[in-house]
Amino acid sequence: MSLSKVACLIIGTVGLAVAHGHIDRIDIDGRSYGGFLVDKYPGQPNVPELIAWSTADTQDAYVQTFDYNQSNIICHQDAKPGALAGEVAAGGKVTLHWSRWFEDHRGPVISYLASCNGSCASVNKTKLEFFKVEEAGLLDNKKSPGRWASDELMAANNTWTVNIPSDIAPGNYVLRHEIIALHNAMRDNGAQAYPQCINLKVTGGGTATPKGIPATQFYKPTDPGILVDIFNNLRTYVIPGPALYNGRSAAPTSTAVTPTGASPTAASSTRAWAIPAAAPQGCRSVPDQSPR
Ligand SMILES: [Cu+2]
Questions:
Q1: Ligand 1: distance of its center to the CA of 8 in Å?
Q2: Centroid of ligand 1 to alpha carbon of 61 (angstroms)
Q3: 172 C-alpha to center of ligand 1: Å?
Q4: pTM of structure
Q5: Hey, which bits of 46-170 come out as E strands?
Q6: pLDDT tens across 175-218, in order?
Q7: How far is the CA of 284 from the centre of ligand 1 (A)?
Q8: CATH architecture classification, 21-268
Q9: Ligand 1 centre and the CA of 186: distance in Å?
């Protein structure tokens, strides 16, 4: 285990945390919307109405794999719907700006939509059925641990642009956008999910109503994309969650990875990775939820 992973583990255990990241701005059609600022809004009396969902999280914490069947995985810790919605035409783009991210928090970037069947401001999150609209994982495996969707996000000034499928029926949707950090994912309960939700009002003349599933059914702690050692010369990476909705959406952002010549045996006996220069900032999970 590298120093950085030890640091992450220890800091997480004693409960200190340095901010990781959250969506602090959403840009749609030349209009900017504020995100839910976890470092500012919790406990404040006059939090502005937002298209972003609020959370009880104040630490940019993650949802641990053991809670992937609990409601915090839906839209983060004790999330509540935003009062507003950002208007976007089907086929349009939504650009999400993360406050910050860490290079060593490598992993996939995944986006889902769920119809609210009415207003999203009062929706019951446990009833939301999400379909996956975009996914990107390991983009290049040449040099372990590889180039990841999270690297692409950071290279784009901590932004990710989601293409809204052009064929979906107009209406209100929750966009669930997520980074899953895999730097500790080689051990049980090590993958870190950072889900974020915003309300969208999709306009246009589409008719598709893709079938979705509850977010609590997306992932299992032992999925190959969740329990995975990204430092072990990964040749391919299986992005977790349900199948991608392949309606008339914009071009996928994920890139197929061409396997390198490394044999599985060589891969498992050689660790060709470097310890990151700086230890990652403290990783902290949101409080455990009791099963229900
Ligand atoms: Cu972390």
A1: 7
A2: 8
A3: 32
A4: 0.85
A5: 63-64, 86-89, 93-98, 109-115, 130-136, 138-140, 147-148, 159-163
A6: 999 999 999 999 999 999 999 999 999 999 899 999 999 999 99
A7: 7
A8: Distorted Sandwich (2.70)
A9: 14
